[in-house]
């Protein structure tokens, strides 16, 4: 099949990387990128960090421009896919034909209420600017959700001098960072004056037009000037319902990120197994594999997950390769907590599975080699 026109739906890092990778892999035909946001493609990780702190702006987080010969349609959501006709319909009524389709529609913030009424979330640049404007007149912030995003928002709010509480159903951060790092991170959070609350039996939101606080099952209430829901994300698959692809767990792809020979799915919307890996590095790696797979099929190299993730909170700059096993004590390879700079390696049954750097300049390739030597050597 000749790939004359490749249509990319979504305009985040996965989409932009795919457009670039298609050109690098020799695609000379037309490429169109369709995004539903009005902005030029931008980077999301700084939203909870520099943008909320006002050290970054929309301009500074805008991604490098797409190749000049790639057409970008902004503010135009895709609303339906017809796989037989090979067309994607946009909300403005246009129907775009394609030979190859890249689905890169990412994810949106999950909310606690079904319709999200009154909830404040952080997913896009407009959310970040709106939150930052509300903070300017606030004294207190309650963050619901103690995962990496909730804790980054809390850290930034505290940095700005706000009274901050973070509430979760389970102990904060543990699932992503394991008990060893979590103990240090939560100690740093509490030392900065933040209150961390665990409410295992659940919470109920208070406030209709705007959420003003929570009530725990025990009956205690906690109110704040700004309440932020940071309770995970949901893949943007609804527009694919007519094509029978709207799996709420994300789009299952093969080892080359394909749904079919003419359709690939990448980034936060896709999953290669049971779970999605909604991280920046995975979106980039998948986009590169998918671009070649769309053009060259099985000649493309397979996607090999190489988990990489970073976060900045409580003065700790953490980079993590691999998946940290929850209760494993890591080996300190270099540095110490006393120096506030160190390198950790996690092993299971003597086999390294993850590595982390804390406040340390260390190349990611070396961190990856420390985390998964077998993977890097192969
Ligand atoms: C605040 C925040 C901080 C983060 N920090 C980190 C971090 O420190 N480290 C890390 O590894 N990861 C981080 N992430 C995750 C990382 O940003 C994502 O994994 C990455 O952005 C995924 O890229 P993507 O292109 O798949 O999806 P997205 O970035 O979500 O882009 C998808 C785009 O498609 C658009 N779209 C959706 N539906 C349609 C439609 N029907 N038609 C057209 N367009 C559509 C969306 O509006 C969006 O513009 C963070 C995420 C957030 C929100």
UniProtKB/TrEMBL annotation:
Name its co-factor(s): FAD
Source organism, top-level taxon: Bacteria
Q: Which GO terms describe its cellular component?
A: cytoplasm
Q: Does the keyword Flavoprotein apply?
A: yes
- What's the short name of a Pfam family annotated to this entry? Pyr_redox_2
| Keyword Isomerase attributed | no
Sorted keywords for this record are: FAD, Flavoprotein, Oxidoreductase
One of the record's GO molecular function terms: oxidoreductase activity, acting on NAD(P)H
Matches recorded under InterPro entries: FAD-oxidoreductase/Apoptosis, FAD/NAD-bd_sf, FAD/NAD-binding_dom, FAD/NAD-linked_Rdtase_dimer_sf
Q: Outline the extent of the FAD/NAD(P)-binding domain.
A: 5-287
Name of the protein this chain belongs to: Pyridine nucleotide-disulfide oxidoreductase
- Species for this entry: Microbacterium keratanolyticum
